[in-house]
């Protein structure tokens, strides 16, 4: 690096420094502080005794940890592939050149700007037994069985999955839509000259061109799904009987209700390593496919 390049790069430091300081304080420092906390018996008020790896040993023998981890993994399995496919389908509809194009894009994206508290209140109100909007509609079309959406294990899972898809699919749809609009129109024109059908265009042009953004969406969705917390806490409270309680809710309960931040930090690091491993696998698979 010559002197002129070094001087030019140094001029950027005053602009980068505020973000770098904030990054150190709010990201790097909590990472190492959390690791320290996981090695101690740590309460909400102060650090207590050094326990070494005892918190990690407890975690591996804690049935509540494994159950909530499975609940979280089940949520990922149910939502991630559905989210990617649904977002792609909505993006294809929103990219069609019709008079409803602007309306469709707005309608698909609108729920994602609402807060989780608003979404949860709406869903709880709609799913009330006997007087809720959904059960009333079901009674109108001839279904007399009273469904208790939030107190039945299967129905509670269906509720959480559907709510999450409706609430968050708009963001992924926008990413796919940006990818669709980035595909050169000349590719479709050339394929039409060669006699390609719409399905062949989608299979051989659209899908391959969307693979890069599709991988990003898949990774982001897996990470977001493993961090699910707020909508489950507000809608079902983790019930019925802990059937929908995710890992982050258990971490929250242990840390702030049971006053055991050390063990909560330990489980947080377990989740961190799970997400790290999944991210590395995804990135390695991407590089292998590209090479």
UniProtKB/TrEMBL annotation:
Residue spans crossing the bilayer: 12-32, 69-94, 106-127, 154-178, 216-241, 261-281
Membrane association type: Multi-pass membrane protein
Annotated keywords: Cell membrane, Membrane, Transmembrane, Transmembrane helix, Transport
GO cellular component term of the entry, any: plasma membrane
Main location: membrane
One protein family per Pfam: BPD_transp_1
UniProt-listed CDD domains: TM_PBP2
Residue ranges of domain ABC transmembrane type-1 in the record: 69-282
Organism superkingdom: Bacteria
Compartments, record wording: Cell membrane
GO biological process, one term: transmembrane transport
Similarity section: Belongs to the binding-protein-dependent transport system permease family.
UniProt-listed PANTHER family: ABC TRANSPORTER PERMEASE PROTEIN, INNER MEMBRANE ABC TRANSPORTER PERMEASE PROTEIN YCJO
Record's protein name: Sugar ABC transporter permease
């Amino acid at each position: 690096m010559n002197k002129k390049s070094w001087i030019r790069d140094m001029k950027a430091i005053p602009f980068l420094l505020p973000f770098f300081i904030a990054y150190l304080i709010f990201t790097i420092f909590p990472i190492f502080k959390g690791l320290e906390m996981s090695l101690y018996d740590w309460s909400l008020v102060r650090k207590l005794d050094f326990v070494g790896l005892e918190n990690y040993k407890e975690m591996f023998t804690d049935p509540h940890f494994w159950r909530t981890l499975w609940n979280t993994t089940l949520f990922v399995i149910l939502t991630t592939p559905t989210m990617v496919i649904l977002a792609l389908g909505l993006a294809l509809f929103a990219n069609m050149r019709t008079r409803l194009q602007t309306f469709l894009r707005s309608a698909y994206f609108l729920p994602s700007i609402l807060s989780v508290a608003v979404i949860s209140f709406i869903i709880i109100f709609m799913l009330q037994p006997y007087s809720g909007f959904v059960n009333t509609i079901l009674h109108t079309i001839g279904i007399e069985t009273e469904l208790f959406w939030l107190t039945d294990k299967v129905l509670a899972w269906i509720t959480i999955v559907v709510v999450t898809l409706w609430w968050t699919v708009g963001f992924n749809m926008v990413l796919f839509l940006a990818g669709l609009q980035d595909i050169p129109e000349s590719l479709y024109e050339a394929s039409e000259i060669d006699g390609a059908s719409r399905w062949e265009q989608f299979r051989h042009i659209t899908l391959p061109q969307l693979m890069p953004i599709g991988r990003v969406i898949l990774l982001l969705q897996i990470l977001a799904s493993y961090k699910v917390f707020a909508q489950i806490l507000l809608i079902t409270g983790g019930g019925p009987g802990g059937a929908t309680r995710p890992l982050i809710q258990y971490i929250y309960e242990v840390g702030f209700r049971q006053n055991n931040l050390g063990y909560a930090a330990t489980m947080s690091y377990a989740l961190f390593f799970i997400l790290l491993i999944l991210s590395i696998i995804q990135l390695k698979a991407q590089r292998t496919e590209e090479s």
